Amino acid sequence: MTERALILVVEDELALVTMLRYNLEKAGFRVAAAHDGQEALTLIAEAKPDLVLLDWMLPNTSGLEVCRQIRRRPETRDVPVVMLTARAEESDRIRGLETGADDYITKPFSPTELVARVRAVLRRTRPVAADDRLERAGVVMDLARHRVMRDGRAIPLGPTEFRLLRHFMQHPGRVFSRDQLLDAVWGRDTYVEERTVDVHIRRLRKALNGEGEVDVIRTVRSAGYAFALEANAAA
Ligand code: CA
């Protein structure tokens, strides 16, 4: 990264903001801070951070709701979000990811782990080379503009779903196991569980497949997932 990445920390506990700022700056990041959801949404639109570190427990609007709103607004939709939470429950974790978070860190965490996770998410969400275009089975990916269309309809995708789809479309018809997808899309050094892949596949399908449309992602039982070579091959 030529310019130092800007991380927006959204947390109401000032001591934790100080700790996060210290460790992130020490790791070479620039840091901005917001103390509630509204301030966060304003700052994301204005300052365009490279990543948002979002606490679940915030006054007024919960981190979960803030994440939902980030994903809903076109101008903030693509920003990577890492949720911070004291909730270790698996169902909460899945809920966080389903809301659109790219990763999830449970408190208490070590500064080293935090920095490693932030770096991993930044690495996999970095924009690719300009004017690349992928087109298969009615799905068009404009990699430079980060846009996806299916049969002329714009498909809004979060950063992880975008990279998943790109990976599938670069290898049409090829079946990838969850483990292979984790390596290719999340990166080898992340702490993501295989079940996370299913969550993002579900989100990708939901976004891609309109009412009555053929599912272009194929589930291959006990093997993994593939992008169908032709739309009708998935039927
Ligand atoms: Ca908090």
Care to describe what's here?
Strand 6 (133-136) and strand 7 form a beta hairpin. This protein folds into two domains: 6-124, Response regulator (Rossmann fold, 3-Layer(aba) Sandwich), CATH 3.40.50.2300; 133-234, Winged helix-like DNA-binding domain superfamily/Winged helix DNA-binding domain (Arc Repressor Mutant, subunit A). The N and C termini lie far apart (42 Å). It is 40% helix and 20% strand. It is globular, with a radius of gyration of 18 Å. Strands 2-1-3-4-5 form a five-stranded parallel β-sheet, sandwiched between helices. It is built from eight helices and eleven strands. Bound molecules: calcium ion (CA). Calcium ion (CA) binds next to loops.
Mean pLDDT: 85
Number of discrete helical segments: 8
Find the CATH topology of the largest domain.
Rossmann fold
Largest sheet features: 5 strands, parallel
CATH architecture of the largest domain: 3-Layer(aba) Sandwich
Number of domain modules: 2
Strand tally: 11
Q: Which blocks of ≥5 consecutive residues have pLDDT under 50? A: 231-235
Please give the radius of gyration in angstroms: 18 Å
Helix proportion range: 40-55%
Strand order of the largest sheet: 2-1-3-4-5
Structural class given helices, strands, pairing? alpha/beta
In angstroms, what separates the terminal alpha carbons? 42 Å
